[in-house]
Write a structure and sequence with these properties.
Number of strands: 8
CATH topology of the largest domain: TIM Barrel
CATH superfamily of the largest domain: Aldolase class I
Strand content: 5-15%
Strand order of the largest sheet: 1-2-3-4-5-6-7-8
Distance between the termini: 43 Å
CATH class of the largest domain: Alpha Beta
Structural class: alpha/beta
Mean pLDDT: 92
Length: about 350
Amino acid sequence: MPSAEVEARFRALFASRPVVLAPMEDVTDAVFRKLCRDHGAELCVTEFVNVEGLLRGCRIASRKIDLAPDDRPTAIQIYGSDRDRLAEAAAVAEASAPAYIDINCGCWVPKIASRGAGAGWLRDPSAMVEMAAMVVRSVSLPVTVKTRIGWGPESDMPIVELARRLEDVGVRALTIHCRTAKMGHEGAADWTWAAKARARVNIPVLVNGDVKSGEDAVRAIETTGCEGVMVGRRAIEHPWVFAECRAMLDRGERLAPPSALDRIALCRTHLLANVEARDEQHGVQCTRRHFSGYLKGIAGAAALRQGLNTTNTLAGCLAILDEAQARVERGLSATDRPVLSREQLLSARSPDPVGL
């Protein structure tokens, strides 16, 4: 059982209609969590942590549960197909002092779900409840579950009764992605299922799926009665969404969209942080998935993205961003003249990332 102090901190997390950064594999690492926190995400969740890797002492799994003092509050999400191993791994993760332990019962990706992990648990709700009960007993931190409304089809949605059963075994909060596992990311999320589940339980429920703006956050909470929302894919392209949601929830205010200079600055900030945390090659490569969204709406964005996505050095990418910033400051479009030539990019020397 959580101590009174831990329980009070946990309750406080859900008291102000939180907008939570969703767990996303290869995305929500420490660098991205900080970036989103700087943009208004008050609560974050780690990447998926494989229980087998964690129990073997795998370097990748160990890195995922390493939470720095300024990386809080952050929850650690674990996944696996064996309830005993999940319980053991939860106890290991607890040593990192996360805000809580979250169990992944919602990942629909075949290589995970087909092995019984993630959303695979929804094929046997009773086994899922038994597993959750075992994890709850194994730790003194609050345990939460992130899941979907069912495996599929629409005629078989266990989430309403399942939510009550999970509460009965000690699960302290639920995040409900309002699609079935078979839907993946296709179709629209049906928030009415979150409302139905919330009506059956006394624990906090977060709405997940298709929360893309401040207006969406307000509508999701007001129409479902849930305590907050969780944002996933939208954050990858637009981390400003957290500040936008907070402004609408707290003040009913619609923020101005980020300027071209804001967008260029975020590319630079994220790029430098990724290189410092990894190495130059991997830091540059893993930032590419964000450039399309970060640069959306800038005149000549396609050419700018192409340059960034085909440049393998930090110095080359920074030179492109500096040039783009200069154009914006001069009131020029990126199409007024070409971005730096390939020869100029190749000649740019890569600085030592240490101390960036």
